[in-house]
Structure formats: structure tokens, C-alpha cells
Amino acid sequence: MAQRSRRTYMAGVMVMAVALLTTVHAQTVISFARLSSQAHNAYLEPLIEAFQAANPDIVIENVESAGDGYEGLAQTALLGLAAGTPPDLVQVGFTLLPTLVASGGPIALDPFMEASGFDPSSLMPGMLELGQLDGSNYIMPIGVSTPVMYYNLDLFRAAGLDPDSPPTTWEEARAASQALVDAGYQGILWGWSITGNWLFQTMLESAGGRMGMDADSGHTATFNDDAGEQVLTYLQSLTQAGLMPVTEATVQTFASGQLGMLVDSSFQRVNTPAQVDAEVRLAPVPIPDGGVTRLPAGGNGVMMFSRDQAKQEAAWRFLEFLAGPDAGRIVAENTGYTPANAALIETLAQENAADPDYVLVLQQVANVVPWHAWPSNNGPRISQVIKDMQLEVLLGRATPREALDRAAAETNQLLED
Amino acid sequence: MVQGLAQQEAIGAPASRRAPRLRWLGPYLLLLPALAFIAVSAFSPVVYSVYLSLQDWRLGFGSSRIVGVRNDVRLFTAPDFLTALRVTVGYTLLTSCGSILLGLALALAIQHVKRLGSVWQALFFLPVASTMAAMAVVFRFMFDSHIGVINAVLERIGLARIDWLNGDLTAFAAVVIVGIWSTAGYAMVLFLAGLTTIPENLHEAAALDGASAWHQLRYITLPLLTPTTIFVVVILTLRSLESFDSVKVLTDGGPLGATQVLSHLLYIEGFRYFNTGYASALATVFFVILLVVAIVQMRTERWVHYE
Amino acid sequence: MSKVWAWLFLLVAAAVTMFPFLWMLSASVMQPNEIFRPGVNLVSQEPTFSNYATALTKAPLVRFLGNGVIVTVAIAVLQLAVIVPAGYAFARLRFRGQRFLFLLVLAALAVPAYVRAIPNFLALSSWGLINTYPALILPFIGSAFGIFLMRQFFRQLPGELIDAAKLDGCNTGQLIWHVLLPLTRPALAAFAVFSVVSHWNDFFWPLVVVRTSRMYTPPAGIAFFASADGGENWGVIMAAGVIVITPLVLFFLVARRQFVASLAQSAVKG
After folding, report:
1. Are residues C6 and C134 in the same domain?
2. A313 and A344 belong to one structural domain
3. Mean of the per-residue pLDDT values of chain A
4. Do A79 and C213 touch (CB under 8 A)?
5. Same domain, A311 and A292
6. CB pairs A-B closer than 8 Å
7. Residue A171 shares a structural domain with residue A134
8. Cα A278 from chain centroid (whole Å)
9. Which residues in chain B have Cβ-Cβ distances shorter than 8 Å to A79?
10. What confidence tens digit (pLDDT) does each residue in B258-292 have?
């Protein structure tokens, strides 16, 4: 009798021990659909490692997309959704926000933010807005890029321009390009072909225009106003005078060492200068006379797609981590992105005061405006319409006014669909 | 499955005394595995595609509405589609004709020259074996107006630079050139295989009778090559019609749609705009076109003679 | 005389064909500042193999190549197993519905990859096969091109040979294995080459069904360095391209012997 009861007792203890051990080590596994390439692994892998080290009860399973940038990634998420097995977290480019939200996949982050006391002001103003739609937050930013101008000091000197005072206005940029072309080089390349009409928006807003506005009848295109005309007229005049090559190969053209100025993303802060055999520095993007500096934020962030409560909580912890200074530092050290954490930006600016290019990129974040996302399923298509519009004008196949009006009409129609 | 038949038939008994009842099953059993895989991986998608094209569905979205043939109607009136159709016809004709002729010429030349056969074959097959994703990038840079090597060469020999990728016609030419470059080797290999089935003695006999090389080509080689030629024409036409990687990387359908072939339009609608319902309608039409082309070409097999 | 023309033609064609590869090889040992330098510069001033080192270490390229071998060999072997009987049946047997069934095969030839993508993905997903080797292999086994090719070749074979074999008491199985296969070796080798090449270089389908970098196939190795958003290193991309293409070239050279050896035989027999 006594023996039996002792055995039962021991069995009971063992069962409890095992149960205790397994619950202590119980892990939540969440899947993270993310880009997988040399440039992006450079920050994503350390981020994931750091998070898992700090949170041993959560395991992140990678769902890697080697494909066509952010669209390929969205495709992976949507395919998973279609098959009933969406990933828990999805890395996303800001312009695909409306398309993804319309699919019903992403989960709004506001309840989680409230429950854990997340302080939105810990992020740079405007950063969180990048991931908002209809008043709800969907994206936690990882890093943000802004438009910036790269210029080749060797060519400047060869063309008789002062390397310490790069052009600050559109007209100065034109004059500098003329000098460069006269010296046998290429002038300036405005990155008009960057995805999502990023640069067009930059120029448009600096001239006082807006891509689209909400009106009573819904959202309408407003880029065909005077500001739009000013932008396209300026660009067309550059190409027709041979001051700007018409090409989408931005970095390669600059890497040839023949191009004086390139307006492109700050993401390549380190990479682009490294590809040229000359001294390269960064400068703010030139604005029109009497214009303002407005910089649409590029970059990416992470959304939550989980439906399961336990996984949602684990996913939220990762998102919270991304907003913190540790994550921010990893991003800043491994890429040209600017992290979202406001306090960190201050610190980084002080630490790197000797690198004016780095400081410039950090400071530009203060002028950030949302990258315009059309509230429609047809967002990507509209972006193509606007991109084609620019090409038409650059190639001289249409006048700015015609092209703008046609594109605006098509955009409005697509918005209604 | 072939084993099974063998066992049934084999117990010493000669073929003609096999159990006649099961004999008719033979051919179907031989076909079964292949057709089963084809049914699942090729046909059910077509059916599904037609089903999708009748809906307003977008990839991953929970709900969809049946919109009947609205997608098809939009399709036939969309300028995008009509332009793509025109571009595709032009591209396919030029690329497949170019590849076939070049492939045939190469095969004949290689046979004629007799030496270094394996070197020539490996060389001309290389484009086919290469990863188009990588080669298209190479071509993209070669054709670049400012930093491209093609323009540099043109300048060197005293000709004017060409703005390849910004002109409608020049971009189209570039895409066709890349198409022919990457496909001629395919035709060459098939033609070479076909040429070797033509018995040597026929040529010898003709030569003895005084026939010139040209005569031999026209009256012996080409006619006997006809089955191979038909095969090559069908396969290459379908391949050009479906070709996609080169266009995507070289021009991305540009400038402004000048090189947008149907397969590219399909990709954009389905995988960039996530407009799956509409893309499926496009895909269905595309499939029908391909099928018609294939059938028409096969029909010409009627007047082929086998040795 | 005509031989001279033929030689000339082949040499010119070879130069044009090889030029992009030469460019690629030369770019693979250059840094980006040299690659895009204006002018015709095929010979690097400061050649470096660092691009190759980067390509092999930064991306799991060797793993991708390994996957390429596994997937293409499995596909080719299974395809051959399936298309040889089918091709034979269409070529030499008579049965009801033959024309219709062949039409179906032809139709399958006409189905483009994008049409197949989503439905196949959904099916594989429901069977839990996403991100596995079967997902990369199964959809391709039913090769309409292969059936077409086999049918063509079987039809061209001399009928007397087959009748003679049948009279000797061969059943269909023995017929295929011992008599026909050796004769159609060139066709099988040709088909294997086309199949391996096309599936080795297929980037689209893996994009749809692969989820982790362990399972990617060779073209992904190239895309790895060509990310959107900037940060591409073109020298490394070219090096990756060279690494991915080389095995195929070697395979072609080896497989080619198959055509040549048996080609001579079959010509004489005819």
C-alpha cells in the first residue's frame, strides 16, 4: 500500500515537473514574411537575432521573398491569405498600404498600442502616419528614406563649379547642369522613375502642389494643377536642352562617373558613393524659387496579419521592439535608412557629427510628409499612369498640360472603380 | 505499368495469342500517367482561370463577386490589350522566323563544316542555357544609351548613337534581337538532330548524279526535314508567344507600352496590380490564341511525308 | 568554296552570340565604378575575384545550386518515365479518341506558366506541400512538349524494325526497353537537356512556392544581389550569373555526346 501510494506520488511529481518545464519553455512561433537579399538581410537578420535573444519565448520563422521587391512580398502575403495560412508579420512598402488593407489581411494595431501603453511620440512625427489609413495604424516603421541629392565633386571642379555650394534651387540646378554639359559631362538626373512616383511627389509638393485631395465626392487627383505643370515644364526643358538623360538606370548612370548630380533615395547613402570613382557628397534636394522643402518618406515597415490571439501578442512584441532604440541602432548601422525612434536620431546626430552626409540624412527626417498612397485598389496602376505621364513629357511626346490632364482624368476614373 | 502488361503477356505466348480482351487497354495505360499529371497541373488551372475570369476577385481577398463576362468585355475594348496584341503578333513573327532561319542556317553550316562540331553546338546553345534573368540585365546595360557598350561600339566605327530604350521602334528591335539571340540555339539543336536522321547515302547518291549542294538542300534535305521543321515552328512560336523575362528586364513593356507583349501584360495585371479576375480573363484569351496557333500549325502536318 | 562561307558565317555568328557572355565575364571581375565606365572596356584594369567570393558567401548559392541539381534531375527522370510510353502510344498505336487526346496534349502545351501558378499553388498548399521539393517537381512532370517530341521521333523510326521485333515475340514492354530506347537516345538526351535547362533557369515558379532561402533554386542566387530599393552590386550579380550558368554548360557538353554517338548509328541503320 505505502509503496503504491509513493509511486503514485512520484509519478505525480514527475508529471508536474514535466508540465512545468514545458510551459517554461513553451514557445510561440510566428512567421515573418520579409525581403531576402543582400541589402535587406543586412539589417533584418541582426534585428531578428536581437529580438529573439531578448525574447527567448518567441521564435520567428522566416518566410523569405526573393522576388520583385515589395510587390513580390505583398504577393506572398496575399497568396498565404488566399490559402488560409497568412504569415503573422509582413514587411511592407508604404505605398502598398491601401491594397493590403483592402484585402482584409492586416490587423489594426491601435488596440495593442493602447493595451501596452505605447507612446506614439517616441517616434519621429510623421513616421507613424505613414502606416495609417482611415484613422487606424497598420504599419510599424522599420526605417525611412528621404530624397537627397548626390553630387560628384570631381566633375564639379572640372566644370568650374564650387564643390562646397551645390545648387539649392531648380534654376541653380539648371545652371550647374549647363556648366557640366559644356565641360563634356552629363548634368543632372532627377529620379523621376522611382517607384510610387516618389520624386514627382517631392517636386510637386515643394512647388506647393498635392498629388490628391479628399473632396466631397471622394478622393480626387490634384497633381494637374499649376504646380504640376511647373514641375513637368522644368523637367522637359532639362531633357530637351540635353541637360538630363532620360533613363531609369539612376545609380548605374551616376556610377559611370559622367553624371554630375543625382536625386535619389537616401537609402543608398553609403552604397551609391562607393560605386563611383570620385568624391561624392550629399546635399538637400533643390526646391523651386519660393518653394518649401517637403520630403515624402520612403522605406518600409511591418504589418500584422495574425488571427490567433497568442500569436498576435507575440507579433505585437516584435513590432514594439522595432520602435525602440536597439532596433533603431541596428537599422542605422547597417543601412542608409533612418530609424523611426526620435531620441535615437538625436543621439546618432551627435555621435556622427563628423559625417555631414549622415547628419543631413538624419536631419531631413524632420521634414517628412507621407508618401502619397491612393485610397484605392488601383494604387499600383495609378502609379504607372503617372510614371508614363512623366516619360511622355520627358520624351517630348506631349506637352505638360496635355499629359497632366489626361493622367488626372485616368486617375480619377481608376479611383472610382 | 509497363511491367504489368509484360507479365500478363509474357508467359512464353507470342504476342498474337495474348488475351484479346485486355489488349485495347494497352495504349490508354501508356498514356495514363502523363495525362493524369497534365490534367492536374495544366487543365484544371485553365478551368479555374475561366472561373476566376468571371469574377471580380483579387488575390487574397476574402470576397468576390460574380461579374460574368464583364472582364472579357473590358478586355476586348481595352486599348492596352489591343496594343499588346499587336505588339505580340509582331514580336512573335519576327522572333520565331528569325530564330528558325538562323537556327537552320547554323545547323546546316555546322554539318557542312564538319569540324569542331561540339564546339559550335555548345557555343550557340549557350544563350538557351543561360539564365535569362541574368542575361537580360547584361543586355539592359549593353543597350543603355549612355553607358551601354553597343553605343560605344557604334561610335567607335563612326555611326551615330541610338537611343535604344526610349524609341518605340528601337526598343522593339532590341527586344527582338534579344529574343532571337536566346532562341536560335534551340532551333539549331532540333534541326541538327533532325538532319542526322537523313541518311548519308541519299546525299552521296545525289552528288554522284551531279546535283549541286544547293540542289541537294532544296530537294533532299529540306523536304526530309519537314517533320522537324513543323515541330520547331510550333515549339518556337509558342515559346516566343510566352516569352517574358527578356521583356520585363529589358524594357518592362516600355517605352509606354511599345514592347508590351501579352505575357507581360498578364503579369502586370495579375502580379503587380493584383487584379486576378481581369488577369484571368486575359489569360484565358491568351491560352485560346496559343491553342489556335498550335492547331493551325499542326494541321499543316497533313501534307508531310515520312520516309 | 562554300565551306569558306560556312566558316565565315559561323565565326561571325559565334562572335555575336558570345559577346554578352564576354561582357558578363569581364564585369564579374570588376567593381561597379569600372563596369559603367563609358566606352568599350572589356578588359579590367583592376580585376578582382572578390565578387565571386561575395556571391558564394553572402548568399547560400551552393545550396541553391544543390537544389537545382535535385529538382532538375528529379523532374527530368520522372518526365522521361511518363512521356516515353505516351509518345510511343501516340506514334505507333491506334486507339479510339487518339486525335482528341493528342489535341489535349497540344492544348496543354499552350497553357502559359502564369495561368498555372495560382491554382497549382492553392492545390499544393491544401496538401501541405508548399516549400518542399515535391512542390518544385510535381507540376512539371506532365510535359506536353516531351510527349510531342517523343511522338515525333517514334514516328520517324523505321517501321520494319518494330515489326521484326514483334514477330520475334517481343511484347510492348520489351519492345520499348530493348529496341526503341537505344534508338531514341538522341531524342531522350535532347529532351533531357531542354528540360534541365528550362527548370534550372526557372525563377517564376519557385517564387510562388518557396518560403525559405534553403529551398530556393539557382536563379534566386542572382536575384539575391539585385534587390529593389537600391543597394545592388552589379559585379556580384554578374559573378552569380556566371556561377549559375556554368553547370548547365558542362551538362550540355556531357549530354551532347549522347546525341553524337547514337546519331551516327541511327543514320546508318536507316
Report:
1. no
2. yes
3. 89
4. no
5. no
6. 72
7. no
8. 28
9. 59-60
10. 999 988 998 888 878 888 778 888 888 888 888 88
| A61-66 average pLDDT score | 83
Q: What is the pTM for the complete model shown?
A: 0.85
Do A261 and A392 sit in the same domain of this protein? yes
* CA–CA distances in Å: residue B190 to residues A289, A366, B305, C86, C154: 65, 63, 19, 20, 15
Nearest to A38 among C33, C58, C212 (CB): C58
Instruction: Please report whether residue C44 resides in a domain.
Output: yes
For residue A416, CA distances in Å to A104, A219, A375, A405 come to 20, 9, 10, 17
Query: What pLDDT does B8 receive?
Result: 40
Residue A249 has its nearest CB partner, among B62, B144, B273, at: B144
User: Which of C65, C79, C167, C171 is the best substitution to test chain B (most B C-beta atoms within 10 A)?
Assistant: C171
Report yes or no: A378 at the B interface, CB cutoff 8 Å.
yes
Q: Is residue C73 in a domain?
A: yes
A-C C-beta contacts closer than 8 Å: 103
Average of per-residue pLDDT across A353-378: 87
Q: A156: domain range? A: 147-296+374-416
User: Taking 80 as the threshold, does the pLDDT of residue A66 lie above it?
Assistant: no
- Expressed as residue numbers, the domain containing C29 is 1-48
* CB-closest option in A68, A79, A391 to B255: A391
Do C157 and C29 reside in the same domain of the chain?
no
Count the domains in chain B: 1
Report ipTM (2 d.p.).
0.82
Q: Kindly report the CATH number assigned to the domain that includes residue B264.
A: 1.10.3720.10
Domain range for B125 is 71-303
Q: For the segment B187-236, what is each residue's pLDDT rounded down to a tens digit?
A: 998 888 788 777 777 777 877 887 777 777 777 788 888 878 888 888 89
**C161 at A interface, C-beta within 8 A:** no
In a domain, B85, yes or no: yes
Q: Which residues of B touch A68 (CB under 8 A)?
A: 271-272
Task: Pick from B138, B272, B275, B278 the residue to mutate for testing the A interface (most A CBs within 10 Å).
Answer: B272
Considering the domain architecture, whether residues A308 and A393 belong to the same structural domain is answered as no
Cβ atoms of residues B277 and B60 within 8 Å: no
How far B13 CA sits from the closest chain C CA (Å)? Answer: 8
For the CA atoms of C67, C73, C74, C80, what is the dihedral angle to 10 degrees?
160
* Domain count of the fold of chain C: 2
CB contact residues (below 8 A), chain C span 57-96, against chain A: 58-59
Residue A15 has a pLDDT of 63
Say whether both C174 and C217 belong to one domain. Answer: yes
Q: Which of A184-193, B107-116, C183-192 has the highest mean pLDDT?
A: A184-193
Q: How many CB atoms lie within 10 A of CB C125?
A: 19
Residues pairing with A186 in the sheet: A259
Contact A66 C207 (CB under 8 A): yes
Q: Do C41 and C108 reside in the same domain of the chain?
A: no
Is the CB of residue A55 less than 8 Å away from at least one CB of chain C? no
C173 at B interface, C-beta within 8 A: yes
A264 lies in the same domain as A362: no
Q: Average pLDDT for residues C201-222, to the nearest whole number? A: 87
Residues C7 and C116 in one domain: no
- Quickly state the pLDDT bin for C243 (edges 50, 70, 90): very high
For residue A87, whether the previous peptide bond is cis, meaning omega lies within 30 degrees of 0, is no
Strands (E), A147-257: 147-152, 186-190, 212-215, 218-221
Q: Of all helices (H) and strands (E), which one includes residue A30?
A: strand A28-35
User: What is the per-residue pLDDT across B76-133, written as a single tens digit (0 to 9) for each?
Assistant: 777 888 899 999 999 999 999 999 999 999 999 998 888 888 888 889 989 998 888 8
Residue B57 domain-assigned?
A: no
> Does residue C123 share a domain with residue C12?
no
The reply to whether C82 and C29 lie within a common domain is no
For residues C179 and C165, the answer to whether their CB atoms sit within 8 Å is yes
Q: Are residues A104 and A58 in the same domain?
A: yes
